[in-house]
Amino acid sequence: MSIMDPADFEYLVNHLEQEGDLKDSIREVVADLEKRVRTMTAKLSKVHSTPSSEIPSLVKSVLSTLDPCKESTAAIAALIPPNQFWRWKDLWARHLQSSVFVMAFCEYLTSGGLITLQTCSSNLGIKEEWKDRFYLQAEDYLQGIITMINELSRLAVNSVTMKQFETPFKISQFVQDVFAGFSVLNLKNDALRRRFDSIKYDVKRIEEVVYDVSLRNLNDPNGGNQAPNVA
Amino acid sequence: MVALMEKQEIINTFDAMRVQFDENNDRKERLIKLSREVTTISKKIIFLLHRVLTDNSSQEEENKKKRSDGVRKADPLFADIRKLFTAMGQEMQGDQFWRYVRSISPGLQEYMEALSFAYYLEHHALISYQKAQDTIKREDGTICFPLPLSDYVLGVSDLTGELMRFVITSIGRRGEEGIDPLAVAVFVRNCKADLEALVPHVRDLQKKVDVTVQSLLKIESAAYGIAVRGAEYAQFHHGSSGLDFGGGEDREAEDRWH
Question: Residue A115 has what DSSP assignment?
């Protein structure tokens, strides 16, 4: 015999089961988004062995998968009940962050600038009227940017290996500017703060590459691979 | 603007984000503080309720009134909690509720424990989810915020621990009247059965159910003790429980042991 009124107990069980079902449905749709994002990140990883002249076509190829992502975001938004964005966002946060990384990296490779949150949002087809159910939240945007910085420090190293000696200098300036932006935030001890702390190492690595290159005048179109200029 | 090209543009954008982040963090802090206050008052209520004495007279109506009066003493404290809920509701409007619900969860569960304890003492039954939700109201009767099912369930499972304490304490108080351990054992046993059905759906419920089982064993032990040593526990003479320990002559039997 139940201590709860049978109708009450029914209500609880039904409600909890419905929540479970909704979670499963959301997961299914998020899996589609994940596949599309993985396709983009996989293609993008080739940048570390792509000469500068071929980067625009690589970027074009990567971004061709961006439009289909709009289907995924619309499908997710359709499932979320009103005002419950924060209840379910962890189910897709990681993939949204990855997509920001892809967009931000491609924008940098194209224009050398930092893509805005609004642009990322509209590239993903996110509509204003979804704002209590599904949107690109500031922290997810920032997580994506941090991933881009991690990748840029790798690119600085690898571009030198590919004998593209100008690249590290451009990367260095850009990353320092973005890092200065991050330093303005008052972060609490959460996931974002921990990842922010890791950017320091990327900054350091890029500086080392810049130092190595300038020391040997590798970026000098006239000289190059001379003995280090130590007096 | 598609991309930010200048350092100053970047700094300005991050500055705007800083303002947003600061607001959110401050709000979270305020809610955590409110939750702690709810917890403190709820604990006071629980201690107060433990001190409620029930007199097992032959008139069930009289007993009911004594319990009721005792529980009424907690009313002003519940009113204080409602004020805190109103303040919380202000901070968590619209889609913000689910953003900060984890900050207030501990307070909510402690409140559920106090609420369901008080309800049980008055009605000898479990407060329904709907009634519990109805208590989270403003002065004008509107709901402050939704009560998450999980906090309701987790709070109820904590109730069984309090009932266990209540039973054990009343048995320990000789000369004072307590609550019928057998009835409580039945209640807790059924609680546990219901909660187990909900375990797959509510995170952390399994641990609480394990604690409930421990409490149940203690209550069953106490009920057994009374059944076996009936003469010494004359104060539990209670027509409705079906355990008849006899009337006044038990006190003589008791004296024989001293």
Answer: E
Of B17, B126, B198, the CB nearest to A13: B198
Rg over CA atoms, chain B: 24
| Helix orientation angle between B7-50 and B97-123, rounded to the nearest 10 degrees | 0
Among all chains, which residue has been given the structure tokens 């881009």?
A148
Q: Do B11 and A8 touch (CB under 8 A)?
A: no
- In this structure, what token pair is assigned to residue B59? 């008139």
CB distance from B8 to chain A under 8 Å?
A: no
**Between chains, do B3 and A5 touch, taking CB under 8 Å as contact?**
no
pLDDT digits (tens, 9 = 90+) for A164-204: 999 999 999 999 999 999 999 999 888 899 999 989 999 99
Question: Degrees (nearest 5) of the Cα angle B111, A133, B135?
Answer: 20
On whether the pTM is more than 0.80, the answer is yes
Residues of A in contact with B187 (CB under 8 A): 3
Q: What is the ipTM of this complex?
A: 0.89
Residues 6+ apart with CB under 8 A from B60: B240
Least CA distance to A118: which residue of chain B? B2
**A113/A194 Cα distance (integer angstroms):** 25
Answer for the pair A47, A59: CB distance below 8 angstroms, yes or no. Answer: no
Local confidence band at B156 (pLDDT 50, 70, 90 cut-offs): confident
Q: Where are the alpha helices (DSSP H) in chain A?
A: 6-44, 55-63, 66-79, 85-88, 93-111, 117-123, 138-161, 167-183, 191-215
Q: Compute the residue count for chain B.
A: 258
Q: Are B157 and B212 in contact (CB under 8 A)?
A: yes
Q: Cβ B17–A11 below 8 Å, yes or no?
A: no
CA angle, residues B172, B177, B182, in degrees to nearest 5: 75
- Please check whether residue B192 touches A, CB under 8 A: no
Span B78-106, mean pLDDT? 94
| C-alpha to C-alpha distance for A171 and A148, rounded to whole angstroms | 11
Q: Go through chain A and tell me how many residues it has.
A: 231
**Cα(A188)–Cα(B143) distance, integer angstroms:** 32
Closest residue by Cα to residue A3 from B185, B97, B152: B185
Name which of A73, A64, A67, A85 is nearest A30 in CA terms: A73
Distance in angstroms (rounded) separating the CA atoms of residues A105 and A174: 12
